[in-house]
Amino acid sequence: MLSGLVIVLLPLALGYLVPVRHAGAMALINRGVNASVYVILLLMGVSLAGLDDLASQLSRMGGQALTLFAVIGACNLAGLWWLSNRLGLTADPSRVVPGAPLSKLAAMAGSLALVAAVALGVALGLTGKALTLRGFHAGAETLAEWALYVLLALIGCQLRNSGMPLRQILLNRHGLAIALVLAATSLAGGLLAAPLLDLRASEGLALAAGFGWYSLSGILVGDALGPALGGVAFFNDLARELAAFVLIPLVIRRHAALAIGYGGATSMDFTLPVIQQHGGVTCVPVAVVSGFILSLLSPPLILFFLSL
Q1: Cβ distance 46 to 140 under 8 Å?
Q2: Is 100's pLDDT higher than 60?
Q3: DSSP-derived 3-state class of residue 178
């Protein structure tokens, strides 16, 4: 477990140590992150295509992902609703940044493009299987691991150059409370879902510890438990993001903590524009802090539970 943790956290830490002061270099890093995500998902699809009896495996995977998503989502909503009533965090939609990017539909289309990347990977994998290319699927899994290391290093750079030092993050009580409640309720949901999915408790916890970081959870879980459960982890976390795009505009004005927290780790990147649009600039630092903490918690927790 320790060696696996070092392998995953080392590129993240190395990336965090690199200061980037040039706007062009930062833009290049951001594009690199997006490209790495698509490469990883494409290769994940290739690995899925290598499964025997793919149709039944995909059907089973979809049912497991839906069950996991429903149980974890219910726990998240209950915990975040309770926190929202106690925290007193309010949105200020009158202070929305002019020209805030991304409509809800555009953001959801971006998420669906990620599913398309997996589908394209499956198509390529099936082609490789039909041509009986030796080592094709195993090679895709190896490339996906290296692409993940690149992604982690680039994300480390993003975190370092986000303009928010660790001291400021840890002192933001709203963001910290939201992140901890989301993490605790997600893990509780993973424990409850494990017997329903015929999984060990540690496997249910590992599947739940992605907190919305689908590119990470899919690869780490797939590497340890096989591509089918890696797909379950991916689709569970992607479903969180899609649901967040719908939920945030509906509840952020009355339950800001619930809206920010439900996005999980994506609150600092993919769902942040929607939070900004509908909750105003006062919600942005809280969302960034919450997403940042969950992004730091996710890799060690997944690897710890996979080692049990």
Answers
A1: yes
A2: no
A3: helix
